[in-house]
Amino acid sequence: MSFVIWVAVLGGVLLTLALTSSYLRWMPVTTSAVCLVVGVAIGPSALGLLKLDMADASIWMEHLTEVAVLFSLFVCGLKLRSPFKNKNWRVAVGLAAPVMLLTIAGVTLLLHYGFGLTWGAAVLIGSVLAPTDPVLAALVQVNDARDDDSVRFGLSGEAGLNDGIAFPFVILGLLLVQHDGNPGWLGDWALGSLLWAVPAGLLIGYGMGRGIGRLTLTLRIKNDDSTLSPNDYLALALIALAYVCAESIHGYGFLSVFAAGLGLRHEEVKSTGNDALPAEHLVQPVVGHQNVEPQQAVHGDTESLEDTQVAAGIMMGDMLAFGSLVERAMEVFLVTLLGVVLIAHWDWRALVISAVLFCLIRPLSVVVMPWRGLLDSQQRLLIGWFGIRGIGSLYYLFYALNHGLAPSIATLCTDLTLSVVALSILVHGISTQPMLAWYEQRKEKNS
Questions:
Q1: 296 pLDDT more than 50
Q2: At what angle do helices 307-342 and 3-24 cross, to 10 degrees?
Q3: Residue 306: partners with Cβ closer than 8 Å, 6 or more residues away
Q4: Closest CA to 76 of 277, 261, 234
Q5: Average pLDDT for 196-222
Q6: What is the percent of the chain where pLDDT is above 70?
Q7: Of 62-66, 177-181, 185-189, where does mean pLDDT reach its minimum?
Q8: What is the pTM of this model?
Q9: Is the pLDDT of residue 47 over 90?
């Protein structure tokens, strides 16, 4: 397929979204749902403008989805400003660990006993479908760094954490499928993929975020360079280095990048004061602020602020804007590609799997958790419904496809994953805005 056609289609999709955004804003539908429908329309089953062979594209699709998730995880970490002692972190960890494990177990049992899949294939597909998505869940995540709503914060923290925590269970599924002959493989998996890789990724990423954030602010203040430095370079560098450093010591790069964004945000909190507004709300950089005089580079009352607050505000504002732009562009492209290949890989069993996962396994996993007053019953039901599957699951699918799956199992994993993710985009995309509107109205009445 010609590169020119790919670019033309991407440009056409983006133009369509830009021109219809004012209409979509008032409709109960997300951008992702629109992109999925557009992808089906331009795919081989309809207009035939684009074709994509999953076997040939698996390697570059693995890297493309990985990049999309990395940017989203970094932005997700930047948004979570609350200290670790805040009760909302207990909600996030509860969703990212025990709830996700219950989800993997539920889907595994459904696939094995309900559809006759082997334990290995069931565990693999259950692990691929378990993590909620940081890319497609923007509407249900925190609005900004001041948002401390338990539902939004919990879902944001969950999306940031469980895309890395799911990794060892994907590896476990691969080992079960491949029948590893090493008699000590289960112990090796538990030690290396679970007990080491998870904390190693979190610690190295958080440490790098704090350290690089402190060094950056110190140098900019010392050199009177609060407004001139390119913060998009800094974001790219921190994402890349956190990922590489974690992977080099066999930690999880996803967790490291999320923790790097979180560490950078917490360094901003320390520099501007725990009780102050987020730095990006104190001052906001103007477009092209690197090319104008410092006094013309920002909006806000800079005279009453310390140099550290000005530098942190510009840094955070630029990074959030840049990361969100890349995140949205990748979302549009990848979901459109999902639509292109969906009809060829549709599996009717996904209807049953999705219904049980969305309406039974996920909600029950949230409800049975002993939250001890952290969430009321309606918040539990809302969180139970917002288990959006998306780009993270696609990454794990392509990762598995590139690690020696037998053709029959590869086809099964591909068809079920693509079909369930597409259903999640449609079902959650249609229901998200009405349910959030109801939740916000309920909060206003109770406040």
A1: no
A2: 110
A3: none
A4: 261
A5: 92
A6: 86
A7: 177-181
A8: 0.90
A9: no
Q: Indicate the residue type of 317.
A: G
Burial 93-122, CB ≥16 within 10 A → b, else e: bbbbeebbbbbbbbbbebbbeeeebeebbb
Per the structure block, which two tokens stand in for 271? 């520099």
pLDDT at site 299:
54
**C-alpha dist (Å) from residue 312 to 57, 132, 146, 395:** 41, 30, 15, 33
Q: What is the pLDDT of residue 229?
A: 64
Q: Find the mean pLDDT for residues 257-284.
A: 77
User: Which of 319, 252, 269, 271 shows the shortest CA–CA distance to 85?
Assistant: 269
Cα–Cα distance measured from residue 9 to residue 14, given in angstroms and rounded to the nearest whole number: 9
| 416 neighbors 349 (Cβ within 8 angstroms) | yes
Phi, psi of 284 (to 5 degrees): -130, 125
Element (H, E) at 304: none
Q: Report the distance separating Cα 404 and Cα 356, nearest Å.
A: 29
- Strand partners for 180: none
d(CA 75, CA 207): 17
- Residue 299 amino acid letter: H
Nearest-5° Cα angle at 398, 54 to 141 = 115
Please give the Cα distance from 343 to 363 (Å, whole number): 29
Q: Do the Cβ atoms of 204 and 242 come closer than 8 Å? A: yes
Using alpha carbons, list the distances in angstroms from residue 214 to 164, 201, 211, 366: 26, 20, 5, 38
| pLDDT tens per residue across span 301-358 | 555 566 677 777 778 888 888 888 888 888 888 999 999 999 999 999 999 999 999 9
Alpha helices in 300-446 (DSSP H): 307-342, 349-356, 362-367, 377-385, 391-401, 407-446
Residues 6 or more apart whose CB falls under 8 angstroms from that of 253 comprise: 70, 164, 201, 242, 243, 244, 246, 247
Structure tokens that stand for 26 in this block: 């008032």
Q: Which of the residue ranges 191-195, 238-242, 276-280 would you say has the lowest mean pLDDT?
A: 276-280
Residue 159 CA to residue 155 CA, distance in Å, equals 6
> Are the C-beta atoms of residues 420 and 354 closer than 8 Å to each other?
yes
Q: Tokens in use for 422?
A: 């597409």
Read off the tokens for 50.
Answer: 């684009």
What are the CA-CA distances from residue 377 to residues 46, 369, 372, 385 (Å)? 44, 11, 11, 13
Per-residue pLDDT at 233 exceeds 50: yes
312: left (phi over 0), alpha (psi -120 to 50) or beta: alpha
47-50 long-range CB contacts below 8 Å, 24 or more apart?
49/5, 49/9, 50/1, 50/5, 50/6, 50/9, 50/337, 50/340
224 has pLDDT over 70: no
